[in-house]
UniProtKB/TrEMBL annotation:
<dbReference type="Pfam" id="PF02608">
    <property type="entry name" value="Bmp"/>
</dbReference>
<feature type="compositionally biased region" description="Low complexity">
    <location>
        <begin position="29"/>
        <end position="50"/>
    </location>
</feature>
<dbReference type="InterPro" id="IPR003760">
    <property type="entry name" value="PnrA-like"/>
</dbReference>
<keyword id="KW-0472">Membrane</keyword>
<feature type="domain" description="ABC transporter substrate-binding protein PnrA-like">
    <location>
        <begin position="60"/>
        <end position="275"/>
    </location>
</feature>
<dbReference type="InterPro" id="IPR050957">
    <property type="entry name" value="BMP_lipoprotein"/>
</dbReference>
<dbReference type="GO" id="GO:0005886">
    <property type="term" value="C:plasma membrane"/>
</dbReference>
<protein>
    <submittedName>
        <fullName>Membrane lipoprotein TmpC</fullName>
    </submittedName>
</protein>
<keyword id="KW-1003">Cell membrane</keyword>
<feature type="region of interest" description="Disordered">
    <location>
        <begin position="29"/>
        <end position="54"/>
    </location>
</feature>
<comment type="similarity">
    <text>Belongs to the BMP lipoprotein family.</text>
</comment>
<dbReference type="InterPro" id="IPR028082">
    <property type="entry name" value="Peripla_BP_I"/>
</dbReference>
<keyword id="KW-0732">Signal</keyword>
<feature type="signal peptide">
    <location>
        <begin position="1"/>
        <end position="20"/>
    </location>
</feature>
<keyword id="KW-0449">Lipoprotein</keyword>
Length: 363
């Protein structure tokens, strides 16, 4: 699909955006320095670029945002731009947003942004990690670099990244779905996603293990449509799963998320969000918000950038039960569901529950 480029002045309101990102950082998050073990991250780790946030000293702050997905998907990819726009509006900055980028074009798109004299290039997902190779090129000299690394990109001195862990968020998401299944007497959950990739399989595995902690004999129906944004394929998959009797459904999708959820709403099947807080927002109604959006982590980096303390060459780790995000919330809990969910989150954060072992065991 042809790349879409938008220049957004700080005073412009972007129509139709849902402010779904959950902002804020936490001093409890750990950092990993380039070439150092995970325990590194003492004050002074990495390198601090001069003159943040106006690193090129042209008396304006411009952030170039790169995304592989649709930044109007009302979810995961949009949250990244929402957070950047919040900071731009508050501080008189400007954004240059390039979305729907083919990973094969990532380096060239990064070079184009550098030529526009941006102060920061912010990459919304690790699919575009190859763009980081442009950081050493002459046209990108002095630019700061940030990437939402997910499970992690090999750290170098040129950029900073945020890390989170699939098993933590998705195991707890499954547990929350299991609480709903237990309440409605269901034994079957649905999982719909796009391409059949390893990370999507990892998500499914953790989600299913969490469900089975509550409902040991639960079954999960998985559908891989091949496209995160194709609403027709996603709706067809949802109809098929609902006809098979799923009693909770997880549209782990991009632009097709709300189409699935709206159908689930019509059929009385609870749904989960793929990364953002949608409890109580207009439109599609969600039973569970699974919050691990890139915007949630980007908020912490932008706050440091604003203060002039964002260091390159380090990774910031975000852990469920230790930091404000990631987290999972039931939108309308009943009985002691909220307390059960919070207890699990705290037990994972404290290390009482070894989540990787639980996922490996499938329960």
């Amino acid at each position: 699909m042809k790349n879409m480029v938008r220049v957004i002045a700080a005073s412009v309101i972007i129509p139709g955006l849902l402010l779904t990102a959950c902002g804020g950082g936490s001093s409890s998050s750990s950092t990993t320095e380039a070439g150092a073990p995970a325990s590194a991250g003492a004050p002074g780790a990495g390198t601090l670029p001069a003159n943040e946030p106006d690193v090129n000293k042209d008396k304006k702050v411009v952030i170039g945002v790169m995304s592989p997905g649709d930044t109007k998907d009302k979810g995961y990819y949009q949250s990244f731009v929402d957070e950047a726009n919040t900071y731009a509006t508050a501080n008189g900055w400007k954004l240059v947003v390039v979305d729907k980028i083919n990973p094969a074009n990532a380096v060239q798109q990064a070079r184009n942004l550098c030529r526009q004299k941006v102060d920061m290039i912010a990459i919304g997902a690790s699919e575009l990690k190859d763009a980081l190779s442009a950081a050493k090129e002459p046209q990108c000299k002095g630019t700061t670099w940030y990437i939402s690394g997910g499970q992690g990109v090999t750290q170098t001195a040129e950029f900073t990244q945020s890390l989170d862990y699939i098993n933590e968020s998705l195991y707890v998401a499954g547990y929350a779905a299991g609480l709903i299944l237990k309440e409605n007497g269901g034994k079957k959950a649905g999982y719909i996603t796009g391409p059949d990739l390893q990370f999507a399989r990892d998500v499914a595995k953790a989600f299913e293990a969490g469900i089975r902690k509550v409902v040991p004999d639960a079954e999960m129906v998985q559908t891989y449509t091949g496209d995160f944004n194709d609403s027709g394929k996603a709706k067809e998959a949802a109809q098929a799963q609902i006809s098979q009797g799923v009693k909770v459904i997880y549209p782990y999708l991009g632009g097709a998320t709300d189409v699935v959820t709206q159908l689930a709403n019509e059929k009385g099947v609870p749904a989960l969000t793929p990364g953002t807080d949608r409890c109580g927002t207009p439109g599609a109604q969600y039973a569970i918000s699974v919050i691990f959006s890139p915007g949630a982590y980007f908020a912490g980096a932008l706050e440091d950038f604003k203060k002039g303390t964002l260091r390159m060459g380090v990774a910031r780790e975000w852990h469920l039960g230790k930091d404000p995000v990631p987290t999972v919330k039931l939108c309308k809990p009943t009985g002691d569901q909220a307390q059960q969910l919070q207890t699990l989150i705290q037990d994972i954060g404290s290390g009482k529950v070894k989540v990787d072992e639980a996922v490996a065991a499938g329960k």
